[in-house]
Write a structure and sequence with these properties.
Shape: elongated
Order of helices and strands: EHEHEHEEHHHHHHEEHEEHEEHEEEEHEH
Number of helices: 14
Strand content: 15-25%
Strand order of the largest sheet: 6-7-8-9-11-10
Distance between the termini: 92 Å
Number of strands: 16
Bound molecules: manganese (II) ion
Number of domains: 3
């Protein structure tokens, strides 16, 4: 008999699907949130006998780590398979297998590692349909799909959230067993199209609710959202690249997620500050008192960030005429190139900071003044006033 305890996201549930492909009725599978795994492990250790335990896509707390090692030493069968940076220390155990990057330097997923394990131990034979499925899950989980423009991976995750876990398992098992290739059927394609439109509208709305706050040394964008965390974090991150990361709050669930699009930021370190964990690009934690104070209480009064004007023809970024920004307190900021450098004028007074490129100058004013690219009308008015002023001076 086998038992699998796995995460309740696409990567974790896909481990369950593979386990059922391999062991059929001889495996019992339980999906867990990061928080509930430890109770399951305790229950297992106290109640189950002669069962081979797999733990995938999650890792246990220190107490259970020690208990599992004890269990293993006394002959218990056990294998933990994970790909999270924060779990790397489990490699010191014979029953731990944690790989973040494979030999070719590609980010791994729990499903890919577990598939490899099942093939190696001949619990499962490789098939084209399963290969394709496992790769889609990996690309989604590692966010590699975006670089590769692999929409199918994102759609697989959308489908996962559209149906119950049981239904997803059942449909995928059947599809992987009886087809040469992995595909979505016509009905799924249709609802996935509708879902895509819905996500787009949701993100557009959330974009108007994002507030900015400096937490420690880093600039965070803070937003409340219960769903589509990854899509939201990614889109908002791109929209506001001056922010180091996006913090997504789920008050009802007392959870928060962290996402970043920047290579120099590791949000698992941010999450660790609040006793959470995860990946460099995506992490999360339970909302403790400190997180609540910093991200909820102290941001409640803040106004959302204003979006840059999008339909301008004249007031454009990196323009040789300069780029005009406005702030909530009606200050005018102007970024202009002077010889080799980019400088900022605030209400016509030049700031002493100089920047080697436009992007850095913009980051400075977005971080310090939360300014946005003004509309063309404001820009034209500003230039006209400048001309008048100069004429008067002459
Ligand atoms: Mn995973």
């Amino acid at each position: 008999m086998y038992k699998l305890l796995s995460h309740n996201d696409l990567d974790g549930v896909s481990c369950g699907i593979l386990a059922k492909l391999a062991f059929g009725n001889n495996v019992r599978v339980r999906y867990n949130s990061i928080g509930s795994l430890n109770k399951e492990v305790e229950w297992f250790l106290e109640n189950e006998k002669d069962v081979f335990l797999f733990i995938t896509d999650l890792s246990v707390n220190e107490k259970n780590e020690n208990r599992l090692e004890e269990y293993y030493k006394q002959g218990g069968k056990l294998q933990l398979i994970d790909h999270h940076q924060t779990a790397l220390s489990f490699n010191k155990y014979e029953w731990g297998h944690v790989t973040v990057e494979d030999e070719e330097g590609r980010l791994t997923s729990a499903t890919a590692l577990f598939y490899e394990y099942l093939l190696k131990h001949k619990f499962l034979e490789s098939s084209e349909a399963v290969n394709e499925f496992v790769e889609l899950v990996r690309q989604y989980d590692t966010w590699e799909w975006e670089k590769n423009n692999n929409e199918k991976a994102q759609r697989l995750n959308s489908l996962f959230f559209l149906v119950s876990i049981e239904e997803f398992e059942e449909v995928m098992l059947e599809r992987l067993q009886s087809n040469e290739h992995f595909f979505f059927d016509e009905f799924e394609e249709k609802i996935l199209d509708m879902e895509e439109d819905k996500i787009e509208r949701y993100i557009r709305r959330k974009r108007r609710e994002l507030v900015q706050r400096k937490v420690g040394e880093l600039y965070a964008g803070v937003v409340y959202a219960e769903s589509y965390h990854s899509e939201l974090g990614n889109q908002l991150g791109k929209e506001y690249p001056h922010l180091d990361y996006i913090a997504i709050l789920n008050i009802g669930g007392r959870r928060m997620g962290f996402r970043t699009i920047h290579d120099h930021i590791d949000v698992s370190e941010v999450a660790a500050r609040f006793d959470g964990g995860g990946h460099a690009k995506a992490a999360g934690c339970t909302m403790n008192d400190l997180a609540f104070r910093l991200f909820v209480e102290e941001t409640f009064e803040l106004d959302p960030l204003h979006e840059d004007a999008k339909r301008n023809r004249f007031n454009l970024k990196e323009s040789s005429f300069g780029t005009l920004y406005k702030t909530k307190s009606d200050d005018i900021l102007f970024i202009i190139q002077v010889e080799e450098n980019w400088v900022i004028e605030k209400d016509n007074v030049r700031l002493e900071q100089q920047f080697s490129n436009f992007r850095q100058a913009e980051m400075y004013i977005k971080r310090n003044f939360q300014a946005w690219v003004a509309k063309d009308e404001v820009f034209v008015q500003y230039l006209m006033n400048e001309v008048k002023k100069r004429k008067r001076e002459e």
